[in-house]
Amino acid sequence: MTEKKEMAPELKEGLKAEFNKEWRKELRKSLPVKERTKLRRQKMPERKPEERNVDFDEVNLGLDARKAKKEAQRCLDCANPQCVLGCPVGIDIPTFIKLIEIGDFAQSIQKMKETNSLPAICGRVCPQETQCEELCNLKKATGTPVAIGNLERFIADYEMSQGDVYIPQIPPPTGYKVAIIGAGPAGLTVAGELAKKGHKVTIFEALHVAGGVLAYGIPEFRLPKKNLQAEVDYLKRLGVELKTNFIVGLTATLEDLRNDGFDAFFIGTGAGLPNFMRVPGENLIGIYSANEYLTRVNLMRAYDFPKYDTPVFLGKRAAVLGGGNVAMDSVRTAKRLGAELAAIVYRRSRIEMPARIEEVHHAEEEGIEFHFLTTPTKFIGDEKHQVKAMECLRMELGEPDSSGRRRPIPIEGSEFIMDVDMVVVAIGNSPNPLIPQTTPQLKVGKWGNVEVDWDTMATSIEGVYAGGDIIRGGATVILAMGDARIAAAEMDKYLNTKKSKLQGTKSKKRRAK
Amino acid sequence: MAKILLRERLVPNIHILEVYSPDIARKCKPGQFVIIMPDEHGERIPLTIADWDRKKGSVTSVFMVVGTSTHKLSILKAGDEIPVFVGPLGRPSEIKKYGTVLCAGGCFGIAAIYPLARALKKAGNKVITVLDVKANYLLYWEDKLRAESDLLFISARDSFYDCKDYIPRTLKNIMKKESEIHRVHSIGCTYLMSTCSEATKPYGIKTIVSLNPIMVDGTGMCGACRVTVDGKTKFACVDGPDFDGHLVDWEELFSRRKSYFEDEIQSLCYWEKKEFP
């Protein structure tokens, strides 16, 4: 996978132009850097662990305007802002933060939306600590970066609370039709970008609700559905059409859509194929993939059963296998649904866990147990085929593997039994095979991922682009959105050249006459 | 939203549902299914497609009233709308000229096997159809199926029809009489499909069953519909629903289908109290 590390020249120039504006100069003068570095990071207000681990309301409460302005003061407004490099979508971070500092929230959100159409979501679920905040110069100076993610969330929530969402000026229709396959983070981003260019965008979504993993995967307590709904409504106001209950590949193939007059396509169908452990007893009752468990609870609202018809097993002793964010979401969900034991079972140790530190921290506060260096080898069922225990093996860490993390090695003879009545397997997903299976010319890699040119996100079929987990396997919301921004720019270029080609052939024909 | 064109009781506890869905009608093939959700609070459940009309743009399914979702469906009227009717899902049944094919359907499977019998007949097969009903008053679509079959037997536990017997014994009798049967298709409840598979196994006749585990999304995303076939885990929604009945782990399927037995009762009681106070 290629991650671009140098800043694009346009981006650099844009940042510089903003940096040199008079109001920015004055603002920098108003409080010297030395004073700014002394300011303490504003703590994100959150609900008490014992209060929040019994319901599905949001854990983080968000900064208020006063705290947000104070936090914005901490930003040093560097001449060479490293934070922007860490952002997969290249948000002009200093400008949006400085606009918060002077209290011009309306301008701040506009600036944000130039590059990021889903700030309420990114502000909540992006791993800022390994991206923008990791590279923040203040972190280098004091150890504590500016809370960029919290500020992003603040500005998005502020706009929503005003009830007056900024809709950018949309150019006249280009007459081109774009089909977006999958209404997840990648698809929603491409849709927003291309609608803003005047193309007619239709999103096709297999489920009955838009959002993809934002709808079925990430729980309410981390990303309230009302925030997602607001982002989807925003896209609709940009003129995007949403077709739910439509499975491209089955309801109509990509070729059918081309025949229906679509000019360009974006495949953002995600990593919708859960991986399992492949150990004996895995099909016992009470063993879920994280996708199924979270879908039942989030999308189908099993937490409100029987008001909603979809049930979910309420384990008293729940083990979640894996160490990523999805594992954290699953185990915290199990706790909220009444599990007395809600435990992470992970084959490596704490430092190798791919989950965000904040999520691990929240999980610990809520009473989640962690069993490191442990892997199940067998699931044991009762007479009703209900899981009642799992046989586990202890591990030790060996040499680093291809992921750079130390490889877990089983310790012989270390088997032990752990009593559980529910297991959630959260060890990752593979790309969903529906599009590759039904689109014969589409080039696919050995993991079932759609192959793209990483500079343009173009697939092997002309006019068809892809991004997010369908090309990466299982990654993050923001990486999917980064892919989507590149794809959207390239698709716009592609449509424009198509137009000039079309005009070219027309004029040739005229000449021939 | 998908519009209901027809909802009618065919026989006690079994209903027909015709839905306006031109996209699905244009694409669907025998053996495929749809996922449907009866209302905004509903569960997503799979129903096998029993017929379609491409011109009219309609898709027909037949279902037995069991739990909350099917109870909700059973009181819908023409003109009502349901939030989810999505498909066609699953791999279509393999249709080839095999020679003689026996199609065994019971319960909702009488309807589900109809498009299969029709396609097999069209492909040049001799089609023998066996319909399994508990009693004569539960039989429907007899004429429709007779029109697509070279031979049709009705296996019933009462004395009205040719075979007063359970379907496995009926199958055995037919297999003894017919010189050669090249393939068997069986659709219906898990019990019917497992006993049909058991009956044909000694004769070594390839028996295809259409599995009906619990599903959620129906696109391979969740893995609720895991079944073990030939020792390997398969997803019925994307790898099936058709599988070789002689290789299916039936015991596992029976148990997994009962995963939410108590919840289903609680859900139905809740709904009945709300709907008929």
Describe this structure in words.
The complex is a heterodimer of chains A (513) and B (277). Chain A is an alpha/beta fold. Chain A is built from 21 helices and 16 strands. Chain B is α/β, with parallel strands linked by helices. Chain B has two domains: 2-89, Beta Barrel (Elongation Factor Tu (Ef-tu), domain 3), CATH 2.40.30.10; 100-210, Nucleotide-binding domain of ferredoxin-NADP reductase (FNR) module (Rossmann fold). Helix content of chain B is 29%, strand content 32%. In chain B, the strands form three sheets. A seven-stranded antiparallel β-sheet of chain B has the order 6-1-2-5-4-3-7. Chain B has a seven-stranded mixed β-sheet with strand order 11-10-9-8-12-13-16. A two-stranded antiparallel ribbon of chain B has the order 14-15. In chain B, helix 6 runs parallel beside helix 7. The longest helix of chain B has 15 residues, at 261-275. The mean pLDDT of chain B is 93. Chains A and B meet through strand 5 and helix 16 of A and helix 1, strand 7, strand 14, helix 9 and helix 10 of B.
Ordered list of secondary-structure elements with their pairings:
The complex is a heterodimer of chains A (513) and B (277).
Chain A: H1 9-19, H2 22-30, H3 33-38, H4 49-52, H5 65-74, H6 93-101, H7 105-115, H8 119-125, H9 132-135, H10 137-142, H11 148-162, E1 177-181, H12 185-196, E2 200-204, H13 213-216, H14 225-237, E3 241-243, H15 254-259, E4 264-267, E5 273-274, E6 287-289, H16 290-299, E7 317-321, H17 325-336, E8 341-345, H18 357-365, E9 369-371, E10 374-381, E11 387-400, E12 406-410, E13 416-419, E14 422-425, E15 429-430, H19 434-438, E16 464-466, H20 469-472, H21 477-512
Parallel strand pairs in A: 1-2, 1-4, 2-3, 4-16, 6-14, 7-8, 7-14, 8-9
Antiparallel strand pairs in A: 5-15, 10-11, 11-12, 11-13
Helix pairs in contact in A: 5-6, 5-11, 6-7, 6-11, 7-11, 8-11, 12-21, 16-17
Chain B: E1 2-11, E2 14-20, H1 22-27, E3 33-37, E4 45-53, E5 58-64, H2 68-73, E6 81-82, E7 84-89, E8 100-106, H3 109-112, H4 114-122, E9 126-133, H5 142-147, E10 151-156, E11 163-164, H6 167-177, E12 183-187, H7 190-200, E13 207-210, E14 226-229, E15 232-235, H8 236-239, E16 242-244, H9 250-257, H10 261-275
Parallel strand pairs in B: 8-9, 8-12, 9-10, 10-11, 12-13
Antiparallel strand pairs in B: 1-2, 1-6, 2-5, 3-4, 3-7, 4-5, 13-16, 14-15
Helix pairs in contact in B: 6-7
